[in-house]
Structure formats: structure tokens, C-alpha cells
Amino acid sequence: MSYSTGNISASGGHIGGVVGQNNEGVIYACYETGSVSGTGNDSNCIGGIAGINTGYIYDCYATGAVSGHHYVGGVIGYFTSDGEVMRCVALNASVTVATDCNRVIGYDVGRITAGGILEQNYGRAALNRTNPGHDQSGGADVAPGAYNTQAFWSGDGGLPVNELGWDFDYDWEWDSSRSLPKLR
Q1: What is the pLDDT of residues 72-105, one digit of tens each?
Q2: What letter does residue 7 receive in the DSSP assignment?
Q3: N or C, which end of the chain has less CB nearby within 10 Å?
Q4: Torsion angle (degrees, nearest 10) of CA 37, 131, 108, 92
Q5: Burial of 78 (0-12, 13-18, 19+ CB in 10 A)
């Protein structure tokens, strides 16, 4: 469990708000609120949470703007291998790139070629993105009326769809000043 609130800017690639590259590890219960940017034409694999994911990422969200040159995503820049990305939400102000970006994952080779799993991921419906890549990596739409309620995140709202089921007993609590979850 971790969070990042500062702005991150670096040259090159594999830049993330929480981790640059997740190599078969597990990232659970984290969020990022600052901007993440890669500078220069070699700035690839940039994500709000992880630049590259070959592992498992669960129950994370990002709100800061993300930008780079190639493979940029609100949560993950580049998803490869047979990893999993589940119950993650891209609420970023924007995702900006020259080629291949999307709300949740900028470029998804993991699910296409290696059997990776993407489930129950969401992207802010009005998220501004340039040059979208693979549409299946953008996650389902979620509107402010839903994501600004604890019921969407906790699964305790009795809603028929769009509930994540995050653990508000041990990991998360509701931050009413931001209308978003925060770590305990």
C-alpha cells in the first residue's frame, strides 16, 4: 500500500507515479495524485501508477495528468506478460502522447499475446486523451456521479454495476474533502 502526491518528471522511459517497472511483483492499494511526465522522444512506457507492468496491479487509482512520447496510460504505460490489472481507475486530468495512449493502459500486449487479465477497470468518461491506442485497454466509462461516492469504490451501495469492492475495513477510508478514497 502506497501513495504519491508529488509531480514526477524524467527523461527516458519506464516512469510511473508509484513504480517505474513492476517485474512480476504485486502492487496493491495505491494511488497517485501528482502529474507524471516523460520528456524527450525516448520517453516511453509512462503511467500514473506504473510505467511497465509484467506483474499484478489491484485496487489502484490515479488522478494526475500523464504525458510522454510513446505508450502512455492513466494507470499503466505498457502492459506485457501474463500479469493482471484489476479494479483500477484512471481519473487523470489528461493522458497526452504522440502515439498509443489510453485511459487505463497505454499499450496492451499482455492480454493480446500472453493471456494477461484486465478486469473491472474504469476510466473517467470525460478524460482527455490524445492519439488513443487499443480501445479495450481504456476501461469502462465512469462518471463523476459514480466515482465521487464511496459506494462505487466499496461495493456497499447496492448498485447493479460499477462497484469495485475495495476493502474499506482495513485498507481504505473515505476522504470527504476530495470525494475519493485514501489509505488508512
Answers
A1: 999 999 998 778 999 999 999 899 887 778 888 8
A2: -
A3: C
A4: 50
A5: buried
